[in-house]
Amino acid sequence: MLELVGLAWSAWKLSVKRVGPYGATVVAVAVVVAFVFLRNYLEEEYPQAAETLEKAV
Predict the structure, then answer these.
(1) Residue ranges per domain, the chain?
(2) pTM of the model
(3) Which of 4, 6, 18, 41 stands 20 to 30 A from 12 (CA)?
């Protein structure tokens, strides 16, 4: 769970200057949702890639 919070915070901080605070919130939510879907897909289809992703984050 903390990895998702850290991912959201990083996405927000990187995008806040470009799209403003409300846009950055939307970007952060989209990044977290995309990450969760990607992680679930990789766990089902490519378990080795999912393990590598977990180690990277």
Answers:
(1) 2-56
(2) 0.82
(3) 41
